[in-house]
Amino acid sequence: MKSLIQAVVVAVALVAPVASFAQSNAPKTRAEVRAELVQLEKAGYNPAARDNTTYPAEIQAAEARVSAQSAVAQAPVADTSGVGGVAGGSSASGAAQPTSYHDGMKPIYFGQ
Predict the structure, then answer these.
(1) Distances (CA, A) of 31 to 25, 48, 62
(2) What is the Cα–Cα distance from 54 to 57, expressed in whole angstroms?
(3) ∠ at Cα 40 (35, 44), nearest 5°?
(4) Residue pLDDT, tens place only, 91-100
């Protein structure tokens, strides 16, 4: 029992530093802040407007538009490689449709 407790303590001690590196509390750089401001301006926010009464609503609306645009941009694109993936679509039940051989071609397994 004592060795189990020691193993758990050692495992936690080894995992704790890895978890701390996953989070970054560093302040944003000037370039990152400038890029965010440019995105907000493209979304319709005007920081030069002198109407302070609508400030919170305007910037929140612009942030919502930017996040919606980034969500659309990060949406998965349909895989057109033809390899793997999940089959989409629907299926129908019922009797098989008769096949006509008007072009003279027969399926590979014809007659088997």
Answers:
(1) 17, 20, 19
(2) 6
(3) 145
(4) 666 666 555 5
